[in-house]
Amino acid sequence: MGDFKTALEMIKIAATFCKVDVVKFQKRNNKELLSKVEYKKEHPVPENSYGKTYGEHREFLEFNISQHSELQKECLRLGVKYSTSVWDLTSAKEIVGIKPELIKIPSATNTNFRVLKYLCKEYPGKIHISLGMTKRKEEKEIVKVFYDNQRLKDLVLYHCISSYPVENEMLYLLELKRLISNYGNKIFGIGFSGHHKGISPDIAALTLGAEFFERHFTLDRTWKGTDHAASLEPDGLRKLSRDLKSVSNALKFKPSEILDIENIQRKKLKKFQE
Fold first, then answer.
1. Which sign does the torsion angle of CA 205, 129, 8, 217 carry?
2. What total number of domains does the chain contain?
């Protein structure tokens, strides 16, 4: 929401109530991303705007790098990792300077090869990339950048559908199996970035092999702006975090034919069959 106190409150709730592992923000240099005409024109949906122009709206939502550093400190204090999605080269350079454990590339920026090459050369941490609205040819070009720079083992690719919100039948979760088949043994991991309502698709993605999960988070889905409608409120995020961890612990093979917890029932119920 562009309000620092709100951001701190969201970190605290995400860390202590929702029990997440990572809190992620976004960083844009709006004058680098937008043309002068785009910067000065009205917001395309005026009722969602926080400024008189689209540029003012975007600037209202931004934190400067000093504020990001403070957000990172608060994350560390509360025991969660800090990360940021970088949308442009200037933002990438700024965020690299505060040395987060991981950096995210959003779908909109994943073919900005200047950014990808810069991160491969200058940033030693994990690089997570969403593949929304991305052609297969572009996907291969993205992976090639990391191959050429010997950084495949630091790459995480996310299946993503870029719509806000997206209906469940349009999530195409079996794309996860394709990504795992093509890249699973070559890169660090495969993830799922969702903009849907509810949490059941995330559990399905886990059973299909996704290892990392990204969801938008809000304190109130009625706040203005398209992202809030595609976000989870605190109780929803808490349930998602709980269920992902619970189901993950269940996804394993039995260590023996008969478990110790089954022996009592076996002796009781199969006594005439032995």
1. negative
2. 1
The pair of structure tokens assigned to 183 is: 């890249």
Q: Is residue 274 part of a domain?
A: no
Contact 93, 118 (CB under 8 A): yes
What is the distance between the terminal CA atoms of the chain, rounded to a whole angstrom? 67
Burial tier of 260 (Cβ tally within 10 Å: 0-12, 13-18, 19+): exposed
Does any domain span residue 205? yes
DSSP H helical ranges for the chain: 4-12, 30-33, 36-40, 54-60, 65-77, 89-96, 113-122, 136-148, 175-183, 200-207, 226-229, 234-250, 260-269
Give the pLDDT confidence of 143-199 residue by residue, as tens digits. 999 999 999 999 999 999 999 999 999 999 999 999 999 999 999 999 999 999 999
pLDDT of residue 1: 47
On average, the pLDDT of the chain sits at: 95
Mean predicted confidence (pLDDT) in 25-52: 92
What are the start-end ranges of the H helices in 97-233?
A: 113-122, 136-148, 175-183, 200-207, 226-229
- Quickly state the pLDDT bin for 230 (edges 50, 70, 90): confident
Rounded Cα distance between 41 and 58, Å, is 12
Whether the pTM exceeds 0.85: the reply is yes
192 sits in which H/E element: strand 189-194
Q: How far is residue 261's CA from residue 268's CA, in Å, rounded to a whole number?
A: 12
**Distance separating alpha carbons of residues 243 and 199, to the nearest angstrom:** 9
Residue 236 belongs to domain with CATH number? 3.20.20.70
